[in-house]
Amino acid sequence: MEVKEVFEERNWEEFISRQPRAPFLQSWAWGEFQEKVGVSCRRFGLYQDGELIGVCQALVGRRKLGNFVYVPRGPFLGNFSEEGAQMFLERLKSFAREEKVDYLRVEPQWESNEEIVSLLRGEKFRKAQVATSQAGGVTLLLDLTCSEEELLAKMRKTTRYLIRSGEALGIDVERTSDPEMMGEFHRLMKETFRRQGFVPHPYTYLQTQFETLAPRRMAELALAKYKGDILSAAITISYGDSVSYVHGASIRSDVPSSYVLIWETIKEAKKDGYCYFDFWGVTPTNNPHHPWYGYSLFKRGFGGFQVDYVGVWDYPLTLGYGPVFVAEKVRRIIRRY
Asked: Are 241 and 20 contacting, i.e. CB atoms less than 8 angstroms apart?
């Protein structure tokens, strides 16, 4: 086996997009989006006998509090092997040193177990202090090969009731890939983050993301309307065999538009032939003090099964990592309260 840099999109996409639960964060298009927002992207492939068997898209971020190389949902291996994982990690360490960053951060889509943790620790990685991450260390998946009746039966009773209530009210859901409609999403997003006390993604970040992925038929915006007013919206990203619910926004209302919105989005993903609906990040437990508790409770109402990935791991390279570690640890403690 050997690791080589990849410069051609076709082989990359032919490999990863056909893998079960392929992560869109390792798609070629996601790297193009990152470069549009000023983040450098480099791509590496693991080859065996000339055949691509793994990919690793690395993002180089430079900021006041520590420069870094970040690998979201990667390295990604078609069939996991310890040797392949170690070869990728060693190449990433070398790359991070070449880039003269303060630390290397990986968040592979490897389900957590003692062997994986031992592998990372053996490679001198340490568990990061971030409370949340772009990729989400724990997620919730719906198996879309189940019938609609089975999916409804597995939901929380309250969720099922609110879906039915919303349908009876005549809530309409519209799907679009038109970037011009993102203005409605931004309007709802401002209201959502004001209500929940979070800092939203910058307007340009989400707009560029949608404008990059929508033409590739990856990103789609769903809008729930009631009596002509848009009450809630969701952005999904489709890739491989999965549809991921990555952004949601709504106004405060007694009308259960968000429940109908997500249910209709799930049904459309099923009709489009996808195997999984990924809720893209939930709390690891039902701790009511977790910052994600509210919308995790909402997501869990739709059923599905929890998947615990190994999480975020750092490989420190310079003393510049120290302030990053302390800042993220303090932020994590604050969020517990």
From this structure: yes
SS3 string, 8-64, reads CHHHHHHHHCCCCCCCHHHCHHHHHHHHHCCCEEEEEEEEECCEEEEEEEEEEECCC
Classify domain 2-131+309-336 at the CATH topology level.
Aminopeptidase (3.40.630)
CATH tag, 139-308: 3.40.630.30
**Domain 2-131+309-336 identical in fold to domain 139-308:** yes
Q: Does the reported pTM lie above 0.90? A: yes
- What residue segments make up the domains of the chain, in order of their start? 2-131+309-336, 139-308
* pLDDT tens per residue, range 242-282: 999 999 999 989 999 999 999 999 999 999 999 999 999 88
Kindly report, residue by residue over 139-195, the tens digit of the pLDDT.
999 999 999 999 999 999 999 999 999 999 999 999 999 999 999 999 998 888 777
